[in-house]
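To fix ideas, we reproduce below a protein record of this kind.
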Amino acid sequence: MAQSRQEFRNVIRQKRNLLLPNEQKKAELALCEQFFSLPEVLDAKHIAIYLSNDGEINTTAIISELWAREINVYLPVLHPFSSGHLLFLHYLPNTPMQENTYGIPEPVLDKRLITPLTQLDMVCTPLVAFDRMGNRLGMGGGYYDRALAPWFEKKANPKPIGLAHSCQYVDKLPTEKWDVPLPKIITPDRIWSW
């Protein structure tokens, strides 16, 4: 019996939230190792990533290593005037933070720190689930689908890469016409490419 998108979200979110703290830490470090084995990461100077929430694989080790390698880091911020859209702000260890409407920490909006998507080399995207075709199921707001639509149409910068726990893989997801499949998804034990 086919599962709905919301059923997939519920099941996979429950799976990743059941991971123990030591499993989460092990996954975070393994993901970081996989991430920095990618040639496109080693060539990048501007990478957008997100702060983990709701059982998502922890991105702290990746962010710390990006800073150590002097790679510029950017975080998503909910656009204050254009509902459903994201802005990407330069992120440093001392960046003032606040919680957005979803309870997720984001940089305090400072227009001097906004960087256009086209100036980023890569956008690391969160996801709830992914399948063998690179289809990504998010939380349902469509924020990343809107942000990545130009890449999907033109295959220009920034390149999207999904980050996930291994347990977030499913064989086949139900998709919608606006979904943006990802060319690469990294899990602690594998790099998936399409």
Observations:
- Residues 78 and 143 are 9 Å apart (CA to CA).
